[in-house]
Design goal:
The structure is a single chain. The protein has 264 residues and is an alpha/beta fold. The chain contains nine helices and 13 strands. The strands form two sheets. It has an eight-stranded mixed sheet with strand order 3-4-2-1-5-6-7-13, sandwiched between helices. Helix 1 crosses helix 8, helix 4 runs parallel beside helix 5 and helix 6 runs parallel beside helix 7. The chain is elongated. The model has no long low-confidence stretch (mean pLDDT 97). Bound molecules: nicotinamide-adenine-dinucleotide.
């Protein structure tokens, strides 16, 4: 049995994870972490024996094999700082998106004492698509093919563009041998002028209950190539994250990615 602590247990993803863990037979949730603590039947309703605040989570984390985090960027930042000592020799799976550079650096540092896996998207399809996007970036002439990335998510999503859209953009940029930062553009409005060659542009749609849709368009003068992925249900991401948690439990300290889990 793999023992888990789930940060963001009351959320959409936290509850998808709890549902799958309960039905799995080999995953046990020792505790949830969220803003509002709970115990007894109030916690059981969310699929765990207790819900604790971030500041009080160290004890539960030291009893777990893997800490799984789907919360918010500020919570992840605080979690990585506060839980680092408790995580020594254990494993951390992060699915939270919109992380800032300081948090990324803390995750790198944590990777020296714990097994750390961060992924903006846990679906097999998107991870395969990242490789395809990089390949197309490498083979299609930058001056001849403009890249536009369009994503759509439910009305509750708070960061834009999505972490997956940025990962797809980074993959195309890597194929082109350039860094995304210099070429990135988010949306367009007003007198934008003509589109510069090499720009990689992002467009975010928000509304309704969309679990997640991503399109990468390579727009040539006389042809268009489109990569498209649609998540039909967020249990897809929860299944992938728990697959990663099983894989990561007991691994040596280091930074890992879904590429390693999926053998891509
Ligand atoms: P949500 O808002 O439904 O849930 C987030 C939960 O975290 C809430 O219960 C909230 O109370 C809790 N939380 C937030 N800040 C906290 C804090 N400071 N202390 C304690 N608890 C805190 O969001 P969601 O739809 O479940 O998504 C969560 C994150 O996962 C987002 O960043 C989203 O982009 C990401 N996500 C990633 C993937 C993936 O495959 N990597 C898939 C879906 C969502």
């Amino acid at each position: 049995v793999t023992d888990l602590v789930i940060c963001g247990i009351r959320g959409r993803m936290g509850q998808a994870l709890a549902g799958i863990a309960a039905a799995s037979g080999d995953l046990r949730i020792l505790a949830g972490i969220d803003r509002e603590p709970a115990e007894g039947s109030a916690a059981e309703a969310f699929g765990c024996p207790e819900i604790v605040r971030l500041e009080e989570a160290a004890d539960a984390i030291t009893r777990a094999d893997v800490l799984v985090d789907f919360s918010s960027a500020p919570a992840t930042r605080e979690l990585v700082r506060a839980a680092a000592p408790a995580l020594k020799g254990r494993a951390l799976v992060v699915g939270t998106t919109g992380l800032d550079a300081a948090t990324e650096q803390s995750l790198d540092a944590l990777g020296r004492s714990a097994a750390v896996l961060v992924a903006a998207n846990f679906s097999i399809g998107v991870n395969v698509l990242l490789g395809v996007a990089e390949r197309l970036g490498a083979v299609l002439d930058t001056a001849a093919y403009d890249v536009e990335i369009v994503e759509a998510h439910h009305r509750g999503k708070t960061d834009a563009p999505s972490g997956t859209a940025l990962a797809l953009g980074r993959a195309v940029a890597a194929g082109r041998g350039v860094a995304l930062d210099k070429l990135r553009r988010d949306g367009r409005s007003g007198d934008t002028g003509a589109r510069p060659a090499g720009q990689i542009a992002f467009h975010a749609l928000r509304g309704g209950g969309i679990a997640g849709e991503h399109r990468v368009l390579f727009l040539g003068g006389s042809e268009t190539i489109e990569l498209r992925h649609e998540a039909l249900d967020r249990t897809l991401f929860a299944e992938g994250a728990l697959h990663a948690a099983r894989w990561l439990a007991g691994r040596a300290p280091g930074r890992y990615g879904m590429k390693d889990v999926l053998g891509l």
